[in-house]
Amino acid sequence: MTLRLSLSRLAALLRKETIQMKRDRVTFAMMLGIPLMLLVMFGFAINTDPKHLPAALVAPGQDRYTRAIVTALEMTGYYHFTHPNVTAPEADALMARGAVSFIVTIPSDFGARVEREDEPRILIEADATDPSVASGAVSTLSTVASQALLHERHAEAQAEAAQRGQLQVIVHRRYNPEGITQYNIVPGLLGVILQMTMVMMTSIALTREMERGTMENLLAMPATPLEIMLGKVLPFFGVGAVQVLVVLVAAKGLFDVPFVGSLPLLLWGVLLFVLALVLLGYTISTFARTQMQAMQLTFFFFLPSMLLSGFMFPYRGMPSWAQGIGEALPLTHFLRLVRAVMLKGAGLADVSTPLFAMGAFVLVFALIALIRFRRTLD
Amino acid sequence: MTDPAIDVHDIVKRFGDRIAVNHVTMRVETGEIAGFLGPNGSGKTTTMRVICGLLTPDEGHGTVLGHDLKNAARIKREIGYMTQRFSLYEDLTIEENLQFVAGLYGLTPAKDHVRDTLAALGLSGRRHQLAGMLSGGWKQRLALASCVMHRPRLLLLDEPTAGVDPQARREFWQEIHALAADGLTVLVSTHYMDEAERCHRINYISYGTLVVSGTVEEVIEKAGLTTWVIEGGDIPRAEALLEDAPAVDQVAAFGLKLHVVGRDPVALEQAVRSAAAAGGSQAAPAETSLEDAFIRFIGTDTSAPSDGGRS
């Protein structure tokens, strides 16, 4: 009886929900505004591999070896020597103020040691208050410096010959050779945007009726829980479709994110994900008594989703208990799917695990929502 | 006589530890306008919600329109329930609200039903106005129209005229009587005595317990009160004397008259006559009003007041 469905009643409910959604200008603007805002912020502003960081150079010698090192460092793109000739105390003050992120110190006997082949040393101090700023810049250092010196001391041919005998480690950055942050962020944004709007909007769907006192009337009329749920949830599929379109167009047009996989496969994943989200929102709606409570519960869910899903920070870097929580979040699985499909060109077999996981979420949330729905006011 | 429209027995509804409705037995005959009275928080709304299937009773059984109380889905289709608070959608237009209701009840063709209802309401010209913009009286008329559109057999009205001006109230009651004349059964809760007197029968509930039910005359008689009116002379003096008299249950001033009510006719007459004599006033027996009867019923129940049946 709970699952009885009348199309005409559903049509009446859908029509009412759509009109209300259209008339609620602020909410409607938010549903389109949030994706655009997130796209601009994450797409344009945030960069996890920062370049052109300000650096100070403490080099009393200023000989040709010094110049070779400095040029090589600037060539990596990470260092930008804003203070090319300062004393050590001045450099310390600069770093303490935050004016520079690096201090490169080349001792005055550096040139002499190079020529003697007597373990020449340079010191690079990084401001590691923000570890992610320092990491990229520091990781490139040793090879850069030694190559620069080899080139400076020997002719090209000799340099290559000298390298030939050494151990070479070759690193390929696959799927994203230039390590562009946006390639990772923008597909992930698709998940984050859908999650924010879908869960939030559906979570206030029922509580709004409760608060306005219209729930009593709705329940006194012959609409079944399934019809009411579908009426509340289906309009958001339309909103979700618009958001997906906006993000995919922006990914292609604004950020040049490659799309190597299958679009239909991605859309199927999106559909499952959205279904899980709206059902989750609806479930929250059945627990909360007021819209305020619904919002609070929603944020309670957002926080782990943003932090533990692998959207902002690497999933593999987390301890196993945190990974466990991450597994219980639909966003984690969606991110795996969307990144695999868009960037790696994964096929159905490759993403079957996240698809199954999201399918499981759909079933669980649908079940809870229908059980929790109060057809009566008890 | 046909089966009663409402026939429920020993209904109990608890919210946590609080008993909102305590063994209420109520019978409303088909075609009758039944008044439902009682102080705020006495359980009127809760009882109505049980009857229309919005709340499941913890105990008790009965039938509504011949359907068992448990068959809420069936009952819902044959009743109209007008909630105390305006519960149509304020952000939908008048027409859209009616279309929505027509759609939910599966009225076909919905367009005709909506058009006829709008015309009957006299709202055809304003059908594109948002329902939230209507005045209190119009909202209430719209709400009534929307819950009789599917031609229910039983109409439950929860304080429908609260906050509505006298003119609108009168028109509203004319509509109720017109609907009842067509065979609709109505259960209406109210605080207004004049409205109670328009009902065929009244049920008085206090602190979750049905105290009395019957016609207006029966209820007044059951109260067993005698009433005297004192006028002229030193009214305040008479009032002061009577306030402490043991035979007097209620003393109330109505303009220049003093209304005195008591249970023991002989003792009351004595007290009234001596108070009137002291102030140089005239005393005469009068008819007991419904309001006097209700105040007596509230007074007899000494259980602690609760904060109401609204969940």
Automatic annotation (TrEMBL), chain A:
<feature type="transmembrane region" description="Helical">
    <location>
        <begin position="263"/>
        <end position="285"/>
    </location>
</feature>
<comment type="similarity">
    <text>Belongs to the ABC-2 integral membrane protein family.</text>
</comment>
<feature type="transmembrane region" description="Helical">
    <location>
        <begin position="355"/>
        <end position="373"/>
    </location>
</feature>
<dbReference type="InterPro" id="IPR047817">
    <property type="entry name" value="ABC2_TM_bact-type"/>
</dbReference>
<dbReference type="Pfam" id="PF12698">
    <property type="entry name" value="ABC2_membrane_3"/>
</dbReference>
<dbReference type="InterPro" id="IPR013525">
    <property type="entry name" value="ABC2_TM"/>
</dbReference>
<keyword id="KW-0813">Transport</keyword>
<dbReference type="GO" id="GO:0140359">
    <property type="term" value="F:ABC-type transporter activity"/>
</dbReference>
<feature type="transmembrane region" description="Helical">
    <location>
        <begin position="228"/>
        <end position="251"/>
    </location>
</feature>
<feature type="transmembrane region" description="Helical">
    <location>
        <begin position="185"/>
        <end position="207"/>
    </location>
</feature>
<dbReference type="InterPro" id="IPR051449">
    <property type="entry name" value="ABC-2_transporter_component"/>
</dbReference>
<keyword id="KW-0472">Membrane</keyword>
<keyword id="KW-0812">Transmembrane</keyword>
<keyword id="KW-1133">Transmembrane helix</keyword>
<feature type="transmembrane region" description="Helical">
    <location>
        <begin position="297"/>
        <end position="315"/>
    </location>
</feature>
<feature type="domain" description="ABC transmembrane type-2">
    <location>
        <begin position="131"/>
        <end position="376"/>
    </location>
</feature>
<dbReference type="GO" id="GO:0005886">
    <property type="term" value="C:plasma membrane"/>
</dbReference>
<protein>
    <submittedName>
        <fullName>Mannose-1-phosphate guanyltransferase</fullName>
    </submittedName>
</protein>
<feature type="transmembrane region" description="Helical">
    <location>
        <begin position="26"/>
        <end position="46"/>
    </location>
</feature>
<keyword id="KW-1003">Cell membrane</keyword>
From TrEMBL, chain B:
<feature type="domain" description="ABC transporter">
    <location>
        <begin position="6"/>
        <end position="232"/>
    </location>
</feature>
<dbReference type="InterPro" id="IPR003439">
    <property type="entry name" value="ABC_transporter-like_ATP-bd"/>
</dbReference>
<dbReference type="GO" id="GO:0016887">
    <property type="term" value="F:ATP hydrolysis activity"/>
</dbReference>
<dbReference type="InterPro" id="IPR027417">
    <property type="entry name" value="P-loop_NTPase"/>
</dbReference>
<dbReference type="GO" id="GO:0005524">
    <property type="term" value="F:ATP binding"/>
</dbReference>
<dbReference type="Pfam" id="PF00005">
    <property type="entry name" value="ABC_tran"/>
</dbReference>
<dbReference type="InterPro" id="IPR017871">
    <property type="entry name" value="ABC_transporter-like_CS"/>
</dbReference>
<keyword id="KW-0547">Nucleotide-binding</keyword>
<keyword id="KW-0067">ATP-binding</keyword>
<dbReference type="InterPro" id="IPR003593">
    <property type="entry name" value="AAA+_ATPase"/>
</dbReference>
<protein>
    <submittedName>
        <fullName>Multidrug ABC transporter ATP-binding protein</fullName>
    </submittedName>
</protein>
